[in-house]
Specification:
Mean pLDDT of chain C: 96
Chains: A alpha+beta, B alpha/beta, C alpha/beta
Strand order of the largest sheet of chain C: 3-2-4-5-7-6-13
Number of domains of chain A: 1
Structural class of chain C: alpha/beta
Shape of chain A: elongated
Number of helices of chain A: 2
Shape of chain C: globular
Structural class of chain A: alpha+beta
Strand order of the largest sheet of chain A: 2-5
Strand content of chain A: 15-25%
CATH architecture of chain A: 2-Layer Sandwich
Oligomer: heterotrimer
Distance between the termini of chain C: 53 Å
Number of strands of chain C: 16
Helix content of chain A: 10-25%
Number of helices of chain C: 13
Low-confidence stretches of chain A: 1-5
């Protein structure tokens, strides 16, 4: 869209809107990489897509993680701990 | 591609920060569905939870990386049919997709959806059924389970009230339109969900309809971390069976040979907490009746479990 | 070369739609619009219409399908009447606020109750504030010409608004007249393909259409919408001139005056009743009464300046309304005309008339009596504030 057309005449949205949902967290997940079986269940069920896979390991990006605890509850090995979020 | 590889490798098409409730399994469902559909998709999000949390965006910003818009509550299917006609006229193709709540689907949007089903407009319609108008504080819909507390079917202090009627068996109603593809799905059964979205994408001759059962944490009163386990129990108690139907060909995709007692599901949900054993047993009976009916439609198949 | 044909108003509308080559058509049949849908489907069956057509299950879905199609960049056409328009109100309002240049003929029909299927513009007039452009026409040639022009006006980058071309049910929709039909090549030259620049649903250019929006932006969009309505007046005149150079026919733009040059009195009309009034004016003129006629073509945007200029130079005027404005005790067009005159140098006496509801005939006798009533009031320097009803005598009925 050129600059002249940026002067929207109808309600159009461009560029991504993101709420800072990481701020909502009262508890945060932590994966114990020692006991993790690399099954990826946490990645599959994370509602915010905050788990990524890198070199076979699963890593939680806390930027948008709301701290729901689904990953910990679903982990078949019980290797994800939810700990209280420090005051920010 | 297996489910894990697909979810690990595909780009998330939705904004990373949408204001869905903590643990919301609809947010999960949407992200999964959109990873399967990919970037060549036009997405309709009618008024409801996903619209309210910002998937269509906010003040000149978008909530998704694909073209996305708000249809009206009651015209999602017809607006998508119009987009398909325009694409056909221009010789373009894309996944033309609705991600709509049960209010926009089984209530106000039903006529438009039924019309699209009958005419054979080629769209994919995904309903996230959380049994009511959750975005505005849980008012009843015609998908709400019997007995449920909702803000418009309240419960008195001495425990009387709740919704008086069973919810519509909506996926079955859609199947009876003889459309090319109908499926039920659950956020607890992700590979099954992914495969069904892929099947829907293959449909060339009409409507593909997927009905996802999404227990609502906030509205129903479920602990956030139990988001997936309660959805799973709906399937394991036969309360929400997972199947697919191609025109008149039905198939149960996740057979439940030994169902768990219905209490395993209902006891985790606060909206049923006022119900006595009889009312709970009624819900169990409904689940058994509907499952038996479904099995009768699958006669001759090997999944009569 | 253009072709001379005899056709009813619905065929004229369908023919105009065919010539405009809409990419998507969705229409639901309703009396008296039904033949439009039948003609279009027949054109398609004969291979003479390339549009993608949807046989929808309701008018609500007709407008919804066109809204989706227009958001995907397609030229769109539909037609409806009365209850059908009422049913599509929700997507109708939204088509304008999303700036979707959809063209829709409205075959004007009375709103029920009482149960009625006959003519009257109450349907579209009631929706005059829903943001669409609305043009009202007088005969079948004007239906055809204006419907073709409507695509140009709606899709103009200065406008980008949906448009209604409204014509009276049965009086025009089902009556045959001589109509000159331009060739496809003429129309193609006049009407370039529609290219959506302001918004598009296209994965190649992902955007959100209609995200949640704060009040201050709502005000911004409304202000631009109003400006586009105002711009449409100039575009309408421009398009009329260009069409005239192509076909030799001009419809006068937003208003069309008849024998107003030296008029002392004026009768204001809209729609097919204008024909009877022209004859009545000729008859009065032949007796030396200096009365002229102002036909309102464009109700939205309302041509305030043109109406003010036309009516502030006469001694007084009357307005014949085929509709009512509940709560005002007169018709809607009268109310609009009055509002336009607020800025005039002098306020002249006027008389509102209501007649022809539910398809009731407005006869020569009735418009002649109306004219006499108006002249009498004007000469007495008196404005009549409540509508004078135009009743035809009925045998055995006391009114």
């Amino acid at each position: 869209m050129n600059e002249a057309e940026k002067e929207y005449i109808s309600p159009v949205g461009e560029g991504l809107y993101s709420a800072n949902t990481g701020d909502w967290r009262t508890q945060k997940p932590e994966i114990d990489q020692e006991t993790c079986s690399r099954c990826g269940t946490c990645l599959i069920y994370c509602p915010t897509s905050s788990v990524r896979r890198a070199d076979g390991r699963f890593i939680i990006n806390l930027s948008f993680c709301k701290g729901c605890g689904v990953c910990a509850a679903e982990c078949p090995n019980g290797c994800i701990a939810m700990t209280r979020e420090a005051k920010r | 591609m297996n489910a894990l590889d697909l979810l690990a490798e595909r780009e998330d098409m939705i904004s990373p920060g949408i204001s869905a409730c903590v643990g919301c399994n609809v947010e999960l469902t949407l992200r999964i569905v959109m990873k399967v559909l990919g970037p060549n998709t036009v997405l309709a999000i009618p008024p409801g939870c996903m619209g309210g949390v910002g998937v269509v965006g906010w003040n000149k910003r978008s909530g998704a990386k694909v073209p996305v818009f708000f249809p009206l509550l009651d015209n999602t299917a017809s607006m998508l049919a119009g987009i398909r006609l325009a694409y056909d006229a221009k010789g373009k193709d894309a996944n033309i997709v609705a991600f709509a709540g049960d209010g926009a689907t089984v209530d106000a949007g039903f006529q438009a959806l039924s019309g699209v089903a009958e005419r054979g407009d080629r769209i994919i319609y995904i309903c996230y059924d959380n049994e009511g108008y959750m975005n505005t504080g849980y008012q009843r819909s015609s998908s709400t389970s019997k007995g449920s507390w909702t803000s418009t079917t309240p419960v008195s202090k001495d425990g009387h009230g709740g919704k008086r009627q069973n919810g519509k068996d909506f996926p079955m109603i859609m199947a009876m339109h003889d459309i090319p593809y109908v499926a039920t799905a659950s956020p607890a059964y992700v590979p099954d969900l992914i495969r069904k979205v892929e099947e829907a994408m293959k449909v060339r001759d009409g409507l593909a309809y997927i009905h996802v059962y999404n227990p609502c944490l906030t509205g129903w009163g479920i602990r956030a971390e139990e988001s997936i386990s309660v959805a799973r129990l709906a399937v394991k108690t036969r309360y929400f069976p997972l199947y697919e139907a191609r025109r008149r060909e039905f198939r149960i995709t996740v057979p439940v040979p030994k169902p768990l007692p219905i209490e395993n599901f209902t006891s985790r949900i606060k909206k049923f907490s006022h119900l006595g054993p009889e009312a709970i047993a009624d819900l169990g009976k409904l689940a058994e009746d509907r499952y038996a009916f479904l099995q009768s439609l699958c006669r001759g198949k090997d999944n009569n479990a | 070369m253009s072709e001379i044909a005899v056709m009813n108003g619905n065929f004229a509308a369908a023919t105009a739609a065919r010539l405009a080559r809409p990419e998507v058509i969705a229409a639901y049949p309703i009396t008296p619009q039904t033949p439009v849908v039948e003609y279009l489907t027949q054109f398609a069956a004969e291979g003479n219409l390339g549009s993608k057509m949807s046989e929808v299950e309701s008018e609500h879905s007709a407008m919804s399908i066109l809204s989706g199609a227009s958001m995907a960049g397609a030229r769109c056409y539909t037609a409806t009447s009365s209850q059908g328009l009422a049913l599509m109100y929700e997507p109708y309002f939204r088509a304008s606020t999303l700036r979707l240049p959809i063209v829709m003929n409205i075959v004007n029909r009375e709103m029920i109750s009482p149960q009625s299927v006959w003519g009257g513009p109450q349907d579209s007039l009631t929706l005059r504030d829903a943001g669409w452009l609305q043009i009202y026409v007088e005969d079948n040639q004007e239906i055809l010409d204006t419907t073709i022009q409507a695509f140009r006006i709606a899709e103009d980058q200065r406008v980008l608004l949906p448009i209604n071309v409204c014509y009276d049910g049965f009086y025009l929709s089902h009556m045959t007249e001589r109509v000159e039909v331009p060739t496809q090549a003429q129309v193609d030259g006049f009407l370039p393909p529609y290219i959506a620049k302001h918004q598009i649903l296209d994965p190649a250019r992902p955007m959100a259409i209609d995200p949640l929006t704060s009040g201050y932006l709502v005000m911004e969009y409304r202000k631009k919408h109003m400006a586009a309505q105002a711009a449409a007046l100039g575009v309408l005149a421009e398009v009329d001139r260009e069409y005239e150079s192509l076909t030799g026919r001009s419809w006068g733009g937003a208003i069309a005056s008849y024998r107003m040059e030296d008029a002392e009195y004026a009768v204001v009309t809209m729609g097919s009743v204008t024909g009877a009034c022209r004859e009545m004016i000729d008859e009065k003129r032949s007796r030396g009464i200096r009365v002229g006629l102002v036909k309102i073509r464009c109700l939205r945007p309302f041509p305030r300046e043109a109406v003010m200029r036309a009516l502030s130079t006469v001694k007084g005027f009357g307005v014949i309304d085929r509709n009512v404005s509940f709560g005002w005790n007169h018709g809607i067009v009268y109310q609009e005309v009055k509002a336009a005159l607020y800025g005039a140098d002098r306020i002249v006496p006027s008389v509102p008339f209501i007649g022809g509801l539910g398809g009731e005939d407005i006869t020569m006798d009735l418009v002649s009596t109306a004219c006499d009533t108006m002249i009498e009031a004007v000469d007495a320097g008196k404005t009549i504030h409540e509508a004078v009803w135009l009743w035809s005598p009925r045998k055995g009925v006391k009114l």
